[in-house]
Design brief:
alpha+beta, five-stranded mixed sheet, two-stranded antiparallel sheet, elongated
Length: 208
């Protein structure tokens, strides 16, 4: 991406090389690939430098739009993010103020859920994952019900372990104090033994 500088400020952005007119001269698209940065700068074209130091994982945060800044002394154009806003980790509810302002929907009451937070959504995802894992061995339960065929102990142990781990994970999610704490639960790091794990842990897999 390049910026066009006109009269000391950014006048246009170019996302892809193309023919363009600057002043009274038309330049071919190939100047972007064959000219040096200095040659491009001489006619007011500067490649944009992207600074992502403040950009955060959009699973957990809402990033700002990028701000483009031209530094005439340095001859640079930099795109930067502002401070990211953490997504709400807990549910929000309709308040009395919403009601007083006329924003409360007719089918809602003060105290009803307004917006689901990260915790709720993460737990729903976890429940779906657990349902998928258990469905792989549900046929043992069906067979036992219909034919009285014994459920192998390894299967029962596995299903119990999945549910136990699910409960532990849901508790960890529920107890997270804020969005950064939730992010930490899901962040994988390399351990001294070379393994890569996350504080939340993993749901058990069936060993056959």
């Amino acid at each position: 991406m390049h910026a066009i500088i006109t009269d000391g400020s950014i006048s246009k952005y170019i996302n892809h090389p193309k023919s363009l007119v600057i002043g009274d001269v038309r330049y071919p698209a190939r100047i972007f690939s064959v000219w040096t940065a200095s040659e491009l700068a001489a006619i007011g074209i500067i490649e944009v430098t992207f600074d992502d130091s403040k950009k955060k994982d959009e699973q957990w945060y809402i990033n700002t739009n990028q701000t483009y800044t031209y530094d005439a002394d340095a001859g640079t154009v930099t795109a930067t993010y502002g401070d990211a806003t953490p997504k709400a980790h807990a549910d929000t509810t309709w308040s009395q103020q919403d009601s007083d302002d006329g924003d409360l929907p007719s089918d809602k009451s003060v105290g009803d859920i307004k917006t689901r937070g990260l915790k709720y959504n993460l737990i729903q995802t976890l429940k779906s994952q657990v349902a998928g894992i258990l469905s792989n061995t549900d046929w043992y339960i069906t067979r036992n019900t219909e034919k009285s065929t014994a459920i192998p102990s390894a299967i029962s142990t596995h299903r119990d372990a999945v549910r136990t781990k699910q409960a532990e994970m849901e508790t960890a999610i529920t107890n997270a104090s804020d969005t950064p704490a939730l992010e930490t639960l899901y962040t994988y790091t390399e351990q001294e033994d070379g393994s890569v794990t996350r504080p939340l842990g993993e749901l058990p897999t069936l060993e056959i």
